[in-house]
Amino acid sequence: MVSKGQIDSYMINYNGGVKTNLSYRVTINLYGPNHKYIGTVYFSPPKYDEPAGSDSISSGGYVRMFYAMDDYLRILDLLRNEKPLYLYYLENVKAGRISTSFEEIGEEETEP
Question: Taking residues 87-111, what's their average pLDDT?
Answer without folding.
Answer: 81
